[in-house]
């Protein structure tokens, strides 16, 4: 077994780990409001979301291999790795991908620990950009696309600026109209009816999330397989051999779909709590308006070929539903913390990705990638341990929000809201 094969296996495991964090990190985008209003019980909500993410992951793989192509220069137009990265079984490519994935995972876990919804896509882009800059310099990054919405500006910056604003405006208008239409109708009737509507709209968001986000992991693993296989065509009998730039191996589809579904099922309760309880005290009509806005914008943007962050869209929609309801209370200090996290997502993940590239590339032989992977395991274990000290789960996710501390984890004496 050569060292590059071991690095390839590390890349596959790390990519699936990223997919797993993507699942539980983004569960709240679809289900936070349904859980907060009682439309769905917490465990029922994450189970439904997991199933729909699993189904969504199989609906489309058309752009899987070109996901990273828009921001870094390690691939040809057809998605295949450039020739200079395929020497030694694609070692240079594998190390860049490994380091970038670690950058994305570390940022996902840190923001999960803090209960801050942030974009997993932007974390992955940031990690890859940092690793590429460390390996190739600034010229290795596509900063501005050529006549289309590619590059860091088109894929990351502009969507981050416009997605939450557009989603917020749509949700605010929808919420305002809903409350005007149902004015005078008994609250118990509106709450019950809109809770059923929430289930449908939340399901659409989950399905769209699975379709969009699972492709990233499929593409990264397939790129690594092609890079490794380019130097060893004689190994065509092995399941790790792949040279088709127009398809994704079946086992990659299943493993990526299962990873994102499992992550979704376990539920990112800390982020669900922030979105469902921390931004606004949400009612069923607001929840349906927010989810309908998110689903409409995500599906429309996907059809038009725009890459929007589901996190930015969902958060903007929830804020908009608070603005659109007369007299509703919006916790702007919590919103400001979220926006701050969005602003530093790409550079923070890039810094981690760059550091991990130096560790993996500069420590001789196989030791470098193994040390980088060990650092990831250590950081992940530490953040999980910290989260257990102030645990948030399905039992206390709907506890009353403390306006004084704005802490994600509720204190022991806080009353749990009945839903």
Automatic annotation (TrEMBL):
One of its GO terms (molecular function) is phosphate transmembrane transporter activity. GO terms for cellular component: membrane. It is a multi-pass membrane protein. Keywords: Membrane, Phosphate transport, Transmembrane, Transmembrane helix, Transport. The chain crosses the membrane at residues 50-72, 92-110, 122-144, 156-179, 250-272, 339-360, 366-385. It is found in: Membrane. InterPro entries: Phos_transporter. Its main location: membrane. GO terms for biological process: phosphate ion transmembrane transport. It comes from the Bacteria. Pfam families: PHO4. Belongs to the inorganic phosphate transporter (PiT) (TC 2.A.20) family. PANTHER family: LOW-AFFINITY INORGANIC PHOSPHATE TRANSPORTER-RELATED, PHOSPHATE TRANSPORTER. This is Phosphate transporter. The lineage of its organism: Bacteria, Bacillati, Actinomycetota, Actinomycetes, Mycobacteriales.
């Amino acid at each position: 077994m050569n060292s590059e094969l071991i690095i390839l296996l590390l890349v596959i495991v790390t990519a699936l780990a990223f997919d797993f964090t993507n699942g539980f990190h983004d569960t709240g985008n679809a289900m936070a409001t349904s859980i907060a209003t009682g439309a769905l019980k917490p465990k029922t909500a994450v189970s439904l979301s997991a199933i729909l993410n699993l189904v969504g992951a199989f609906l489309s793989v058309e752009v899987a291999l070109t996901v990273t192509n828009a921001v870094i220069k390690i691939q040809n137009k057809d998605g295949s790795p450039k020739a200079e990265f395929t020497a030694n079984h694609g070692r240079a490519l594998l190390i860049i991908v490994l380091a970038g994935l670690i950058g994305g995972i570390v940022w996902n876990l840190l923001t999960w620990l803090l209960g801050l919804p942030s974009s997993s896509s932007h974390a992955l882009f940031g990690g890859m950009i940092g690793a590429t800059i460390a390996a190739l310099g600034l010229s290795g990054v596509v900063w501005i696309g050529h006549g289309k919405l590619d590059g860091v500006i088109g894929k990351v910056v502009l969507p981050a600026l416009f997605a939450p604003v557009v989603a917020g405006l749509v949700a605010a208008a929808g919420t305002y109209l809903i409350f005007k239409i149902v004015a005078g109708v008994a609250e118990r009737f509106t709450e019950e009816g809109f809770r059923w509507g929430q289930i449908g709209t939340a399901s659409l968001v989950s399905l769209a999330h699975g379709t969009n986000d699972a492709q990233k992991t499929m593409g990264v693993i397939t790129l690594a397989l092609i890079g490794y296989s380019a130097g060893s065509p004689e190994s065509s009998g092995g399941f790790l051999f792949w040279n088709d730039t127009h398809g994704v191996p079946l086992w990659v589809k299943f493993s990526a779909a299962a990873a994102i579904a499992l992550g979704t099922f376990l539920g990112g309760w800390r982020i669900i709590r922030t979105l469902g309880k921390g931004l606004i005290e949400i009612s069923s009509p607001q929840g349906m308006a927010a989810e309908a806005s998110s689903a409409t914008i995500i599906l429309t943007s996907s059809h038009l070929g725009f890459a929007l962050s589901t996190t930015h869209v969902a958060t903007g929609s929830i804020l908009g539903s608070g603005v659109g309801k007369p007299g509703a209370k919006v916790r702007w200090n919590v919103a400001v913390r979220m926006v701050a996290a969005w602003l530093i997502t790409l550079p923070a993940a890039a810094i981690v990705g760059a550091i991990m590239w130096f560790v993996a590339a500069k420590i001789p032989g196989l030791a470098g990638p193994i040390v980088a992977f060990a650092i990831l395991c250590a950081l992940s274990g530490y953040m999980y341990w910290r989260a257990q000290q102030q645990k948030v789960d399905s039992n206390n996710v709907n506890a009353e929000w403390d306006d004084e501390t704005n802490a994600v984890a509720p204190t022991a004496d806080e009353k749990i809201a009945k839903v």
